[in-house]
Amino acid sequence: MALAKRVFLFLALNFLVIMMISLILNLFNIRPFLSHYGIDYSSLMIFCLIWGMAGALISLSLSRIMAKWAMGVEVIDPTTADGDLRQLLNIVQSLANDAGVPMPQVGIYRSNEVNAFATGPTQSRSLVAVSSGLLQRMKDEEVKAILAHEISHIANGDMITMTLLQGVVNAFVMFLARVLAYIFSGMGRSRENNSSSNYLSYVLFVYLFDFVFMILGSMLIAAYSRRREYRADAGGAKLAGKQNMIAALSTLRVLHEIRDPRTENSSFNAFKISTQTKKGFLHLFATHPPLEERIERLKQS
To answer: Confidence class of residue 3 from pLDDT cuts 50, 70 and 90?
Structure first.
């Protein structure tokens, strides 16, 4: 059931992106950038910006809805009479007040993993969700520190910044790949050379450069993501206390091996407070620094 839900979400989002981009291209009357007369760089740039940014912005605008559905997040009723849930809401409200951000929606997703995440298109339409495993295994002070970390993400505008960065990278990847493919395929040397074989060569070069530049772009995005985790740790330490933040990260380090396939969703792993550690060359693609490095940086701050 969970797999079917993710597949449906993926297909629905992609359909929405394609329809929206097609509508925007028609509204701006963007003609094909590749013609018998050569490459139209202005049309290509606008085309790439629309394709690169539209998908990222649509994903951001639907992020809160998708999180609730894909992760099974149950939003806590602000008027709940349940003592434990009321306490959780009060902690988030206090942290939000201290950070100067609106009160986000607060939710719980049923999972054995010890984790939490924040998402949402704006500060006023954000969501903070914690796993049931985290609430069961962490002390109250550690839970507060984890929530402070997520509130810091919201205060720093990390979801919006990551989306804009992803969109810009997507646009540059598309633009540079097509310009270089046009040059290397020989299509730009003369109009007579624009044969079907040259066009096939152009398409192959586009795929090649897309692949290479997307790898480089992913490394750039991952580097920024690691930096924002350090900032959120520092923000969490400021809101909930340095020792509490260190204790929370230490507990995550001990319990990070606890995994739950039902909530292993790659779309939201980058927003969780803890992910699997990558080693060697793969570390360049890691969205989170190793927990031991995050702990050491807090100790030295």
So the answer is: very low
